[in-house]
TrEMBL record:
Pfam family, one: Aminotran_1_2
Transmembrane segments: none
The name this protein goes by in its record: Pyridoxal phosphate-dependent aminotransferase
Matches recorded under InterPro entries: Aminotransferase_I/II_large (IPR004839), Kynurenine-oxoglutarate_AT (IPR051326), PyrdxlP-dep_Trfase (IPR015424), PyrdxlP-dep_Trfase_major (IPR015421), PyrdxlP-dep_Trfase_small (IPR015422)
GO molecular function: transaminase activity
Required cofactor(s): pyridoxal 5'-phosphate
Protein keywords: Aminotransferase, Pyridoxal phosphate, Transferase
Aminotransferase class I/classII large domain segment(s): 26-375
């Protein structure tokens, strides 16, 4: 059988999580929280399950969840999307990203990927007949070199994947970034697929600026988000997409044949849970404490790093210590130090190795402290 994705195997996240399990290591590799959800949210799931909300909901999601999500968007981003025509509930942000690409990418189209990049973007482009065009982010801070993006535009350019807060680096887009992108696509039929799953996880007073908050960008952007990342329930695989009516119409044509709809009682639970804004407005402080704890411990190791500005990831550089391949070091750390992480070379199309590793600090404090204690023994495996 001829593969449609011959160059793709099992994701590094699955590989490293399995290795961590096999080795009994602390898993700071795959991006999922190491703690449970708010019991109030879990009780709401039970409530709606027992009340019989277990059959198919509307294809676009229950209206109550779409309405409260629109209100949340107005509160946090300053604009009110139409719940009926612009908001769709999906089975995880990965589905939203794929459906958005399917809605606009045609055979032969070129689609920009700013790398290092999350690994689901390229398959979404390729499977829809498009060609990924890779534009590197600035190595010093992972900001966008807008001149490089501009120079890469051709008559075939159809879309661009963007991601803020950024995985793996934690870079948070600025107002200048939004303005630069708006200027770049002005007068061109170029769509934007915006991965904003870490929208509520920003630090040091930085504010997440959704592309939907920019009036000009809003007209050409699919904003893709995740309730799972926000509320520590990644296994629920519930996300959303906000886009203008015409784009949403095309998006839903794809969505209805991918998953059709999303698990019913959890939609009702989230709709009620979101009625109290403090439940998501408090998230930056919650994660900042974890980030601060983690970088405080990292400062006592031999790694070099810039504190993450967003997401629940922290990058570290070890190039001043060793020229060992990042994947080799990640595997050896898992086996010998019993701490698992992700080699950042996997986020590059050419597997470029800058001797950088990614840690997930969305874990319990005791687990982070134990991992940091083990990381102080890094020189033992670099010797």
């Amino acid at each position: 059988m001829e593969s449609k994705l011959p160059h793709i195997g099992t994701t590094i996240f699955t590989v490293m999580s399995k290795l961590a399990s096999d080795e009994g290591a602390i898993n700071l590799s795959q991006g999922f929280p190491g703690f449970g959800a708010d019991p109030n949210l879990l009780e709401l799931v039970g409530k709606y399950t027992m009340k019989g909300f277990n059959q198919y909901p509307p294809m676009a999601g229950i209206l109550g969840l779409r309405q409260i999500l629109a209100e949340k968007t107005q509160l946090t981003q300053g604009y009110l999307p139409d719940p009926e025509r612009e908001v769709t509930i999906v089975s995880g942000a990965t589905e939203a990203l794929f459906a958005a690409a399917s809605a606009v990418v045609r055979r032969g189209d070129e689609v920009f990927v700013l790398e290092p990049a999350y690994d689901s973007y390229e398959p979404a482009i390729t499977l829809n007949g498009g060609k990924p065009v890779y534009v590197p982010l600035e190595e010093k801070d992972f900001s966008v070199n807008w001149q490089s993006v501009r120079d890469a535009i051709t008559e075939k350019t159809r879309a661009i994947f963007v991601n803020s807060p950024h995985n793996p680096s934690g870079y948070v887009w600025t107002k200048s970034d939004l303005d630069e992108l708006a200027d770049l696509i002005r007068g061109r039929e170029i769509f934007v697929i915006s991965d904003e799953v870490y929208e509520h996880i920003t630090f040091d007073g930085k504010k997440h600026l959704s592309l939907g908050s920019h009036k000009e960008l809003r007209e050409k952007t699919f904003v893709c988000g995740s309730f799972g990342k926000t509320f520590h329930v990644t296994g629920w695989k519930i996300g959303y997409c906000i886009a203008p009516p015409e784009m949403t119409t095309e998006f839903r044509k794809i969505h209805q044949y991918l998953t059709f709809t999303t698990v019913t009682p959890m939609q009702y639970a989230l709709a009620e849970y979101l009625e109290k804004p403090e439940r998501y407005l408090s998230i930056p402080d919650f994660y900042q404490k974890k980030r601060d704890l983690f970088i405080s411990g990292l400062s006592q190791t031999d790694f070099q790093f810039r504190p993450s500005s967003g997401s629940f990831f922290q990058l570290v550089n070890f190039g001043h210590l060793s020229k060992m391949a990042d994947r080799e070091l990640a595997e050896r750390m898992t086996k010998e130090l019993k701490v698992a992480c992700i080699p950042v070379s996997v986020f590059y199309s050419d597997k470029k190795d800058n001797q950088v590793l990614r840690f997930c600090f969305a874990k319990e404090e005791a687990e982070l402290l134990e991992a940091l204690d083990r990381l102080r023994d890094l020189n033992r495996i670099l010797a």
